[in-house]
């Protein structure tokens, strides 16, 4: 533990499993007070992990409090920041918009309902939450907003077209992340000079989370995955960066290399061994 975030108030969305749960654990280990959100408190209908499980993981650390909210519902998600500020006793210092809805279907047959769900969760929700924390961040002269993105936002060059593990089923999901990237970039530009840093962060390799392993099982070799600690460490870096690291579309491994920052275990006490290449 480095104690890097002692006294910081943090909100992490999508914290019932995978990347979000790991980010919450590291913040808690580093002394932050954390509100974790997801759609349900107990088990998901088809994935392992829950807010209750994340709470259990973090029980040996400091303050970690669950807040159940449906990010696809604008009215419900409007509760998150006011209730988090009440729970934690003050304004939010760090917002990590990690939650995502991924519905992978062919573009030619993707329903409007499914497109709307993904845009609500992956695009509108992060910016509703950002707009809720920005006034107090600007007033205090500092704050950090990290929006977790994806390389699925990249344009496919060709023909010939390269093979993709997700085939052609991630266009709508990728479109939400492309929108997230662009809006983050402009928001960071708008807020430059206020002390509020706004960046997106995506993994250089797929993260070996439960969801990724289900979607990509049999389509990627195990060595094509990165341990979750890499994107967690990059999140920590973007949650304590200076005011000039803003409006960036960041990739976890290259960002850590640029900053000369080594990857630590989730409890923050030791360096990950071996360090990812």
TrEMBL record:
Biological process according to GO: monocarboxylic acid metabolic process
InterPro entries to which the protein is assigned, alphabetical: NAD(P)-bd_dom_sf, Sc_DH/Rdtase_CS, SDR, SDR_fam
Family annotation (Pfam families): adh_short (PF00106)
Coiled-coil spans in chain: none
Family: Belongs to the short-chain dehydrogenases/reductases (SDR) family.
Name of this chain's protein: Unannotated protein
Organism: freshwater metagenome
Lineage, opening ranks: unclassified sequences, metagenomes, ecological metagenomes
């Amino acid at each position: 533990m480095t104690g890097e975030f002692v006294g910081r108030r943090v909100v992490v969305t999508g914290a019932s499993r995978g990347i979000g749960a790991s980010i919450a654990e590291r913040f808690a280990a580093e002394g932050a007070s954390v509100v974790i959100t997801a759609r349900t408190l107990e088990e998901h209908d088809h994935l392992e992990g829950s807010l209750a499980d994340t709470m259990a993981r973090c029980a040996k650390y400091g303050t970690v409090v669950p807040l159940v909210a449906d990010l696809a519902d604008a009215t419900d998600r409007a509760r998150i920041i006011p209730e988090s500020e009440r729970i934690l006793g003050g304004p939010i210092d760090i917002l990590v918009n990690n939650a995502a809805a991924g519905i992978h279907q062919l573009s030619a047959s993707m329903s409007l309902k499914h497109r709307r769900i993904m845009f609500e969760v992956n695009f509108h929700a992060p910016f509703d939450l950002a707009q809720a924390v920005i006034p107090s961040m600007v007033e205090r002269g500092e704050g950090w907003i990290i929006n977790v993105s994806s390389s699925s936002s990249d344009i496919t060059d060709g023909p010939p077209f390269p093979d993709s593990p997700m085939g052609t089923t991630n266009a709508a999901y990728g479109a939400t992340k492309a929108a997230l990237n662009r809006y983050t970039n402009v928001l960071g530009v708008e807020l430059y000079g206020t002390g509020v840093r706004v960046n997106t962060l995506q993994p250089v390799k797929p993260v070996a989370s439960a969801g990724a392993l289900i979607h990509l099982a049999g389509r990627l070799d195990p060595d094509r995955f990165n341990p979750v600690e890499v994107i967690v460490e990059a999140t920590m870096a973007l949650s304590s960066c200076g005011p000039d690291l803003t409006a960036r579309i960041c990739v976890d491994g290259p960002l850590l290399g640029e900053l000369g920052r080594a990857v630590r275990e989730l409890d923050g006490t030791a360096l990950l061994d071996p360090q990812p290449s």
